[in-house]
Amino acid sequence: MIGSRGIPAQYGGFETATEEIGARLAERGHEVTVYCRYGNGDSKETSYRGMRKVYVSCVKLKSLETLSHSFMALWHVIFHRYDVLIIMNPANGPLCWMPRLLGTPFALHVDGLDWERSRWPWYGRKFIRFGAWCASKLAPALIADSEGIADFYRQTWKRETVYASYGAEMNPCTDATPLEAYGLQPHNYFLVVARLEPENHTEAILQAYSMVDTELPLVIVGDTNYESNYIRNLKSSAPLGVHFLGGIYNANHLQSILHHSLLYLHGHSVGGTNPILLQAMACSCAIAYLDVNFNAEVMDECGQRFKLDDDSLKECFTDALNGEGWLEDCRLKAQARVAEEYTWERACDAYEQLCTDLHAK
Fold first, then answer.
1. Are 229 and 190 part of one and the same domain?
2. Do 242 and 181 reside in the same domain of the chain?
3. Which residue has the higher pLDDT, 231 or 314?
4. What does the DSSP 8-state code read for residue 39?
5. d(CA 67, CA 64)
6. Alpha helix (H) ranges present in the chain?
7. Cβ(107)–Cβ(86) below 8 Å
8. Residue 224 contacts by C-beta under 8 Å, 6 or more apart in sequence?
9. Which of 104, 148, 155 shows the shortest CA–CA distance to 293?
10. Burial level of 231, CB count in 10 A (0-12/13-18/19+)?
11. In Å, how far are 11, 136, 266, 294 from 285, measured between CA atoms?
């Protein structure tokens, strides 16, 4: 498995999928190797959750880190042949010629529309889209984690994909004790968990919160691995009552914070199936979500939708303050849906079948 920062997962969706799917494949008797970046986990550790860890170097520049690390991993593959490769991230599309040249079966997990993420400069966005195009032409198989992404590749580049969505921890921590470390009380705060990037629309959530008459805090969990004017402006202009907790990488703490929130607000707009949205559902959160096709596909009417061009986001706050019955109904429906449709075992089944099919060709 190539293309993520490695294991243990400490950052985002690719890392989480690599760890959770890779560990389950290892439990099923497969030999799984994960290529890791220095700085992610303990580089002296040779295995984790049954997976072998291999560290290779990369160029420590934001614009080159992913591509250079994947290149070095694929170069290492030349001397350590594997049955099947799983490559994460459409930015690695231009490197697909390497396993093609080796004749090694592989699939590329394309995730969301990464070229629409504002953290990349214009030339970076063009390169990532170019990478996705390369993947559509060179990869024997593409993995999509949502039907919305599958539709995009089908309509744009006439390319079919294999569906393998993300999952969530289905036995989350519900103990309220971790809240004490953050000064929180059960069901007495609003919650956002997101990277602080424009396409996640945290600023719109802050603005709507500022218009609501409430003493309940709005808690923001998440950050980025770099500073930006957007983050500085977001924090400096935040209204009273907003608490920025930064990244929380203790799974039990994060699950407890999710489970005990009054309302979880999800403003992501360009990804496919978002892992934190699934985890919020698994933690039986009442959820208000931005009305885009990726989120609507996952939620399927299990929460309350909002738009950015009307008062619906503000109404989500006020409805939560006034509607305990609605909140409980959302919690039950969301948890039931993720248990039925989005589990890591189902994702592992899809990966295992795909790898078996690729190896058989």
1. yes
2. yes
3. 314
4. T
5. 6
6. 13-27, 65-79, 97-102, 122-138, 147-157, 202-210, 229-236, 251-259, 275-282, 293-299, 312-322, 324-341, 344-360
7. yes
8. 119, 195, 196, 197, 231
9. 148
10. middle
11. 22, 36, 11, 18
62 touches 226 (CB < 8 A)? yes
Q: Is residue 4, in this structure, part of any structural domain at all? A: no
Q: Containing domain of residue 213, as a range?
A: 177-341
Q: For residues 61 and 47, give the distance between their C-alpha atoms in angstroms, rounded to a whole number.
A: 27
Provide DSSP, 67-128.
Answer: HHHHHHHHHHHHHS--S-EEEE-GGGGGGGHHHHHHT--EEEE--S-GGG-TTS-HHHHHHH
φ, ψ for residue 20 (rounded to 5)? Answer: -70, -40
Q: Decide if 71 contacts 50 (C-beta within 8 A).
A: no
- Asked if 361 and 105 touch (Cβ cutoff 8 Å), the reply is yes
Query: What are 181's two structure tokens?
Result: 């470390």
Whole-angstrom Cα distance, residue 251 to residue 175?
Answer: 12
Amino acid at position 80, single letter:
H
285 plus 184 within the same structural domain: yes
Kind and range of the H or E element at 287? strand 287-290
- Do residues 191 and 336 both lie within one domain? yes
- 215 and 126 share one domain: no
Q: What is the pLDDT of residues 183-209, one digit of tens each?
A: 999 999 999 999 898 899 999 999 999
Q: Please state the length of the chain.
A: 361
Q: Say how far apart CA 196 and CA 186 lie, in whole Å.
A: 24
Q: First-to-last CA distance in the chain?
A: 19
pLDDT tens digits, residue range 327-341?
999 999 999 999 999
Distance separating alpha carbons of residues 159 and 143, to the nearest angstrom? 11
Number of domains in the chain: 2
Tokens read off for 322: 């006034």
CATH number of the structural domain spanning residue 64: 3.40.50.2000
* Lowest mean pLDDT across 137-141, 150-154, 196-200: 196-200
Which of 347, 349, 352, 348 is CA-nearest to residue 146? 347
